[in-house]
From TrEMBL:
Keyword Membrane listed: yes
Membrane-spanning ranges: 63-83, 95-116, 139-163
Pfam families assigned to the protein according to its UniProt record, in alphabetical order: PMP22_Claudin
Superkingdom of the organism of origin: Eukaryota
Primary role: Functions as a key regulator of cell membrane composition by regulating proteins surface expression. Also, plays a role in regulation of processes including cell migration, cell proliferation, cell contraction and cell adhesion.
PROSITE patterns (UniProt xref): PMP22_1, PMP22_2
Protein name: Epithelial membrane protein 2
Species the sequence originates in: Odobenus rosmarus divergens
Gene Ontology CC terms, in alphabetical order: apical plasma membrane; Golgi membrane; membrane raft; nucleus; perinuclear region of cytoplasm
Length: 167
């Protein structure tokens, strides 16, 4: 049972780490001489421009930013609640609250990655001043990590739903 508990904790911490990297790192859209994410666009590794209110479709990027941050926060809260429930739940009860919060985290990261997937082309086309050199790029590792984090948080949420507290 201790091995299962250790696996679940490591799995949850891995999910949180993936969310942190996907949210913070600047590699959602990459190419030879540029990289872009939900926070800024950098060309030649030195010329970085923050995405701000002057950005067309800024509310779309704010939605991606907000849901990624919310997902990361919810994942951390779910971990803290799991640790508390380890000591507070009675034997045989399920970790339902932890599961609900972790599945909400999963939903948020899915929403963020889906919005970016759907709107990326329009965002780049409407902001050619920033994205003129970035049209021939591809999805970067932060974007891929966001989708991997979605799978991890989903699996983790289901594990918490199935898991019962034992002695």
């Amino acid at each position: 049972m201790l091995v299962l508990l250790a696996f679940i904790i490591v799995f949850h911490i891995t999910s949180a780490a993936l969310l942190f990297v996907a949210t913070i790192d600047n590699a959602w859209w990459v190419g030879e001489e540029f990289f872009a994410d939900v926070w800024r666009v950098c060309v030649n590794n030195t010329n970085c421009t923050e995405i701000d209110a002057n950005f067309q479709d800024y509310p779309t990027m704010q939605a991606v930013q907000a849901t990624m941050i919310l997902s990361t926060i919810l994942c951390c809260i779910a971990f803290l609640i799991f640790v508390l429930q380890l000591f507070r739940l009675k034997q045989g009860e399920r970790f339902v609250l932890t599961s609900i919060i972790q599945l909400m985290s999963c939903l948020c990261v899915m929403i963020a990655a889906s919005i970016y997937t759907d709107r990326r082309e329009d965002l780049h086309r409407n902001n050619l001043g920033l994205y003129a050199l970035t049209l021939d790029g591809s999805y970067g590792y932060s974007f891929i990590l966001a989708w991997v984090a979605f799978a991890f948080t989903f699996i983790s949420g289901l594990m918490y739903l199935i898991l019962r507290k034992r002695k």
